[in-house]
Amino acid sequence: MEAKKNPRVDIYRLKNVFFNFGLMISISVVFAVFQYKTYENATVLDLGSLNKTTNEIIEIPPTTQPPPPPPKIQLPKIIEVANEELILEDLDLKLDIEMNEDTKIEQVTFEEDLETEPPEEEADKIFMIVEQDAAPVGGIKAFYAYVGDQLTDNYPTAAARMNIEGVVYIQFVVEKDGSITQVQAVKGIGGGCDELAIEVVKNSPKWNPAKQRGRAVRSRKVIPIRFILRQK
After folding, report:
1. Helix/strand number for the chain, H first, E second
2. End-to-end CA distance of the chain, in Å?
3. Does residue 219 contact residue 130 with C-beta atoms inside 8 Å?
4. pLDDT of 112-147, one tens digit each?
5. Predicted confidence (pLDDT) per residue in 15-48, tens digit
6. Which residues have C-beta within 8 Å of that of residue 87, sequence separation ≥ 6?
7. φ/ψ of residue 169, rounded to 5
């Protein structure tokens, strides 16, 4: 016959309750330990009482300084000098001049040639700017008509073969007598055109020389000579 246990006497039926209750107490204790605050023992420093002092602002009235006294001007002392007779010594003065009807006054003449010509300009000086410019005899149109005839009859063969056209700038000097010297090409186009332009200007008729102060002077000129191929 099996013995029956009273369910109220069985202690194992409440083990879950006890376990949960113990767990709750443990957690509460741990939480309380972490939340507990400790303070170190420190002495309280007595700062005493602070006496508040205020600085009063005192208004200082403006002071005016008197202007400096004017500088003392020392007047020069006037020394009286006794009257003394002035003695003229070793002075040969002729103050008395006897004049009569026969006295002649020498006439002062100034040697001055009013027709003095201005000095001549330097013989070798070449002018770039003059009062009256040099020009070809018969005018500039006649000069370029001569140049055109020379270029048409003597157009360089090499330039014609290579179809060279353009402008050659010739520089030269017109002498006092109107002759042409120092002919050179300052800008050329090649193909024999430069040499031909120089020869044409060298052999050109005389020019009227430039004038400065009414006198013939040497002057430098630069003229263009244009080369144009004629279509056959």
Report:
1. 4, 7
2. 160
3. yes
4. 444 555 555 566 788 988 899 999 998 999 999 999
5. 777 788 888 888 888 888 887 776 666 565 566 6
6. none
7. -100, 120
Q: What are the tokens at 28?
A: 């509460």
Rounded-to-integer distance, Cα 198 and Cα 128, Å: 20
Q: Which two tokens stand for residue 77?
A: 């002392």
Provide DSSP, 192-204.
THHHHHHHHHHTS
In the chain, alpha helices (H):
15-35, 140-153, 157-161, 193-202
Q: Rounded to an integer, what distance in angstroms lies between the CA atom of residue 198 and that of residue 163?
A: 20
Q: What is the per-residue pLDDT across 202-223, written as a single tens digit (0 to 9) for each? A: 999 999 999 998 899 999 999 9
Q: What is the C-alpha separation between 159 and 196, in angstroms, rounded?
A: 11
Q: How many other C-beta atoms lie within 10 A of the C-beta of residue 174? A: 27
Structural domains of the chain in order of their starting residue, each with its CATH number: 126-227 (3.30.2420.10)
154-174 tens-digit pLDDT: 999 999 899 999 999 999 999
- Structure token digits, residue 23: 């767990």
Q: Are strands 126-127 and 215-227 parallel, antiparallel or unpaired?
A: parallel
Nearest to 138 by CA among 200, 206, 201, 220: 206
- In this structure, what DSSP letter does residue 72 have? P
